[in-house]
Amino acid sequence: MPASKYDVLLPSEVGYTLPLANLNSDAHRGMEGVINYRGKAGELSYTLGVNGTVSRRRDLEQYKPRFGNSWNEYRNSFTDRWANINWGYQVAGQFQSQEEIDSYAVDNDGQGNRTQLPGDLIFKDVNGDKVINDLDQRPIGYAEGANPYFSYGINTSFAYKGFSLFVDFSGASMQSFLRDWELRYPFQNNGTSPDYMFEDRWHRADPFNNDSPWVPGKYPAIRKDNAGHANFQRSDYWVTNVRYIRLRNLELGYTVPQKVINKVGISNLRVYANASNLFSIDNTKEFGVDPEISSANGLVYPQQRSFNLGFVLGL
């Protein structure tokens, strides 16, 4: 991989800089496999196939890396390390009461916990210095986007007395999805917010009485125009390592017997019905997004479900 030698300087009078040289290196490492089986039981014939691919980039060498300290090396080194590491805070729980906040010894929000409310996220103090900051961030996921490191498929077919059935599943994992914008911040873009954030949140029993008891929920209490609150920092609370399997294609067909179609001068006739993207089993449904969506706010069309009827005619 081309790079420049930062430690070789040329006087400005030379009028040019050193050309890039072959100094760095990386590699995509992984494997893939396919297994197919064909069988028959009486008049029933069937096939089963599975396939899988795992591939990930690894940075191998970097020209004379420089680091100010061991933390800087741990956080920013590219030498012999997987690429696209997702860093963030680890969430250890949520505050259950104002009394717990008042007695909490760790500065969780960077402001002496004065912005915290019951239900707010508690970040793990990894280095034990009683302050939550960048030194407590750790790898919390894979690269974000629509290209998972691991993908697989399962396909099968059955044929019996002119009937045929084809089923095709596909799935993936080792992919991270960060909920952002409309999926993370309340009242984002003129009030747009996910319904789950309002329906299952910490809130006062009486919204007009600040002395009324807190009602627990999954999500922290809602703040308006406060996207900079500690709750919304990048953490494993908002990052989901996506896993899914989808019924990609399903087709049922029937080939009309020759003795029937020969009477009308047809050599071949097959009718069929198929459907695509009928359903998926995944861990993103609770956010209202498709597992194959790469947009952090989910504002793109998901995989479309389609149905078709057709025939194949031979004269």
Structural summary, described in words:
The chain has 315 residues and is mostly beta strands. 8% of the residues lie in helices and 38% in strands. The chain has five helices and 19 strands. The strands form six sheets. Strands 3, 4, 5, 10, 11, 16, 17, 18 and 19 form a nine-stranded antiparallel beta sheet that branches. A two-stranded antiparallel sheet has the order 1-2. A hairpin with a 2-residue loop joins strand 10 and strand 11. The longest helix is centred in the N-terminal third of the chain and has 7 residues, at 70-76. It is flat. The chain starts with a strand and ends with a strand. 14% of the residues are buried.
Number of strands: 19
Low-confidence stretches: none
Q: What's the helix count?
A: 5
Strand content: 35-45%
What's the helix-strand series?
EEEEHEEEHEEEEEHHEEEEHEEE
Shape: flat
pLDDT averaged residue by residue: 89
User: Major β-sheet, in short?
Assistant: 9 strands, antiparallel
Q: Termini separation (Å)?
A: 59 Å
Fraction of helical residues: under 10%
Radius of gyration: 28 Å
What structural class is derived from the secondary structure elements?
mainly beta
